[in-house]
Amino acid sequence: MNSPPAPPADSLVTVDTCLACRSRDVRTHAPSGRTGFVILQCRDCGLRFLRDRLSLDAVVSDYDMDADAYAAFTDITRPEVIDSSHAEVLERIDQLVGPKPGRSLFDVGAGDGGFLAMARERGFAPAGNELSSGAIEMAWERNKVELHKGDLATLDAGLHDAVTLWCVLAHVPDGDVLLEDVKKVLKPGGLMFLQTPRWSKMDGMGMVAHDATKGRASRITDRRMAMHHMSLHTVKSMRATLERLGWEVVSIEPHVRYSLTTASYLHSLGISEKAAERASRPVNALLDRDLFFRNVLDVYARIPG
Ligand SMILES: [Zn+2]
């Protein structure tokens, strides 16, 4: 796989303190030999984050895929994993929100609307937004879900009982801004669910190779930390972020969840297509038994009522 071209310098924002706990005790790793990206590590809460981060404007223009590009992206995902994760999370949201008439759920970056369609079946009025016009078209065609185009800041305040963010936090340069916007669209006492990539044992192994070679062996760190994942959280860094912003944490739990097909995922780590196909079988067996690296955090939190 070719390295993506480095983004132009004027689309980057540079940080030097921990974005989660605000500590200044931050370790700087050698730049990636392939991309030049620099990963920082907070010694207090364990957050790993890119030093040079895409600005929000650059993120927004990157995500505006057309319908064909968006369809190509969804073709390499594992629908059975996505559906079972969606069902599991909705079950928990259902319990935490409780049976309220006219309860509503807003999904940030709602993609093809599959999650919202499932939420509608469980009695939530569905709402959501997308930056990608391709996704907005697809959500309507596949799931009859109407999405708002644009970011949360443009929406009416205090309307929703639950807000969900599937892998959105890691994509934004400043998570605080996003989490404050989520607060505004929630009703008092409202519930947020978010899933975000986690600093896992695999990342730790990748970083050992990266450090030992001063950034030359960077396949794993490049795959896991790039402009599409600008932060990898730990339970501690997630808790620090939420508490600093005034959220009441309900739970923060690591999970195994690979939404790409295993072969596509292994291929993206730099393994040849043929070898990735062969290696995907034992990895699938581990995934089926929930034994692969716990690569994401599931987070539930409330705003005070
Ligand atoms: Zn920290």
TrEMBL record:
<keyword id="KW-0808">Transferase</keyword>
<dbReference type="GO" id="GO:0008168">
    <property type="term" value="F:methyltransferase activity"/>
</dbReference>
<dbReference type="GO" id="GO:0032259">
    <property type="term" value="P:methylation"/>
</dbReference>
<dbReference type="InterPro" id="IPR029063">
    <property type="entry name" value="SAM-dependent_MTases_sf"/>
</dbReference>
<keyword id="KW-0489">Methyltransferase</keyword>
<protein>
    <submittedName>
        <fullName>Class I SAM-dependent methyltransferase</fullName>
    </submittedName>
</protein>
<dbReference type="Pfam" id="PF13489">
    <property type="entry name" value="Methyltransf_23"/>
</dbReference>
